[in-house]
Amino acid sequence: MGSLYIDCSLGVSGDMLVAALLDAGADSAALDRALSSLSVADEFEIAISTVTKAGMRACDFDVVLRHGHETHDHDMAYLHGHGEDRCGRAHEHAHEDDGHHCCEHAHAHGHAHGDHDHQHEHHHEHAHGHEHRHEHHHEYRNLHDVMAIIDSAQMTQSARAIAARAFEILAQAEAWAHGLPVDQVHFHEVGAIDSIVDIVSAAVLADSLDPDAVYATPLADGHGTIRCQHGVIPVPVPAVVNICRACELPTSHLDVEGELVTPTGAALIAALDARRAPDFPYTILATGMGAGKRGYSVPSLVRVHRIERARGRGPQPHVDGVIKLECDVDDQPAEGMAHAAQALLRDGALEAHWLPVFGKKGRPAYQLQVIAAPQDAERMRRLMFLETTTIGVRWTMMDREVLERSERVEQTSLGPVRVKTVVLPDGEHRSKPEYEDVARISSREGIAFPDALVQITAEIRAGRNTDL
Predict the structure, then answer these.
(1) 468 lies in some domain
(2) In which residue ranges is the amino acid composition biased (Basic residues) (predicted)?
(3) Domain count, the chain
(4) What's the rounded Cα separation, in Å, for the pair 287 and 22?
(5) β-bridge partners, 23
(6) Same structural domain, 322 and 305
(7) Does any domain span residue 35?
(8) Which region among 111-115, 188-192, 426-430 has the lowest average model confidence (pLDDT)?
(9) What's the whole-model pTM score?
(10) 203 plus 117 within the same structural domain
């Protein structure tokens, strides 16, 4: 419960995010089950350790590839100027293929600890009661192959959806970068395994925390160039730029030479549907620190805060999402307008009302505003088209804060009356008799509505210590 706030002010990569989620208390048992069930589980192990970055303790998550491969370097170690040899070695085993091989997933596999003080806590091997396919030759996997691997894993449907979305975002970004269809984007065997593990791990761990929402700071990247299979490319790398553009992820710049944001890291932030930084006071319940593999002029760290809204004296208001739909009409009779609003309310709209506006030609017009639950949006749009003369409906998602409400029945000399009560943020209560009940009594008893309201309120107040 609560929310997740991902601090990407020093960059983000897949393994860094996984490490931070583990350190923040995510379910490691769920992670072990998911990774053990992958059809490629016999091709890797994971190593989880404690490291030191700039004097701060952090968690390190590493994918150790079997069958003679070296440990993968998530942070693309082959920086321009000193990484050419690494890149060359990484591709000695690459064979010719007509498709594109994603840069991030075909890079060097050397692992340098640099300023890391590793105290290895876990080294996980995966034992299975089922058979896993493994070819010892080096192959390339396309998006369909990767999705099949994800589909076979033991995880919740929501975690699977996050993982699938991340790979779709990643493949689309690489396709745009190289001007190819998505089905021609290929992930090198080694890089694909590494990225599958990172993405599945992050999806499972984030899902295990069951957050109400995910927030993230702007993604801070460095500058300069890196060398990959296709040559020298600029930082931020094209795939990261494409992900941030397509998914509207805010970014920022640090005066650091090197890549701080990897495509996998950006794809995961997008797949988690991270919102901008929270705009409300919050309490930090736990914090996880995830370390990167490279040494830059700033520490390579991601922080994940588990947060909840700060509590005041009174009860916490309920916050949920609603959708607001609008349309303008200038040619509908008043009777039809009233009928449309009532039809929407009968069919589940939370609110429906008309506002006077001026149309684009200066003519008086009316705007219909409808508030509804997001799952009712399609039904509301259909009704707005059917019940009004509009030819277009616009909508936007909104956050809504609702006070705690309750209803009780009070007995009066004029009959039973429902009383509605809300609890204010400062803990005070505010109540009022239900309008329909007062109106019914007023009509039945032949008493003016204001007089009936005064009498009912006075009797309820006299009968108990009330907030009327």
Answers:
(1) no
(2) 125-136
(3) 3
(4) 10
(5) none
(6) no
(7) yes
(8) 111-115
(9) 0.59
(10) yes
